Amino acid sequence: MKKWVGVFLAAGLVMATGVGASEGTADIFSLRGRRERCFLASVLMPSGNYKVIMSCRDMIFPPEQFVYGYAVWINPVEGGDPIKLGSLGVGKGEYGTKKAFSSVYISEDRPIVREGTRKIFPPALMQGEMKPLNIWASDVIAEPTATPGPTVVPTLGEGERPADQEQAQSVRERLGAWVTRILGVLFGVGLLVVLAAVIVMSVGGRKRYPPGV
């Protein structure tokens, strides 16, 4: 019984390790100092297969004379030979695999060379390590954002006016009072000027003429 429990635990550990390594992303960079780079994303589907998609930038096509494309390879978690996912095409790719993998590399799309029992795989031109999805390891829980409540507009009773209208009315009343005062002062000054003019004219009109004239 203990033997079977150990076997199941070991199998579960391998499966968990495989899922953690293969379900994630990889940033793939050039091993030749070039600007070429690729992004890979892998998700474990209900069918048990890993769905893999890739997108690349600044890659040169064709890579070499008489070589018309690139190939994508994965290194299985369990070890062993690399597994070819497929051709990369024009910098885009979509693949599927049952094998859990820990890293990925890109080579020229050449066949595997066999020398007796030895296999010679095309050398890697670009390489990247699988990284788990950060969201699975995150403890952050998104808090719901507060929904703003409705804006309450106060209702006015009969005969009531808004505060801004009352303030405007008060300003108008004060302005009217000042205008009235200014007009009163100007009217008083005008009366004084007219009265002074009349007095001057009356005094000037009383000239003393010499006798006999």
From TrEMBL:
<keyword id="KW-0732">Signal</keyword>
<keyword id="KW-1133">Transmembrane helix</keyword>
<feature type="signal peptide">
    <location>
        <begin position="1"/>
        <end position="21"/>
    </location>
</feature>
<keyword id="KW-0472">Membrane</keyword>
<keyword id="KW-0812">Transmembrane</keyword>
<protein>
    <submittedName>
        <fullName>Uncharacterized protein</fullName>
    </submittedName>
</protein>
<feature type="transmembrane region" description="Helical">
    <location>
        <begin position="178"/>
        <end position="200"/>
    </location>
</feature>
